[in-house]
Amino acid sequence: YMNCWEIKKCSEDERSACPVFIKESDVVNCWDVLKCEESKRNACVAFINNNGQECWKLTGTLCHGNVIDEFKEKIKQCRKCEFFTKYAKRPM
After folding, report:
1. By C-alpha distance, which of 89, 78, 21, 25 is closest to 55?
2. Which end of the chain has fewer CB atoms < 10 Å from its terminal CB, N or C?
3. What's the pTM value of the predicted model, to 2 decimals?
């Protein structure tokens, strides 16, 4: 996927003034917060797709050592997750 600033080819000044732009230093990934071992990260859909900021939106992630393919069951686990409760409602 591409971000809006990539599609519109915004300058660095435009990006830094934009509330939607996320600097690399602001990115928080689930595997960092949850301190996932490298072997688990490498087997996780969120890590493979570089989408650790919104792992709850992906089915097939490796959550606490288990893959839950059905979203309805997965989100039940997410609601108990430290990362989800802290970052799911974070404004972007």
Report:
1. 78
2. N
3. 0.66
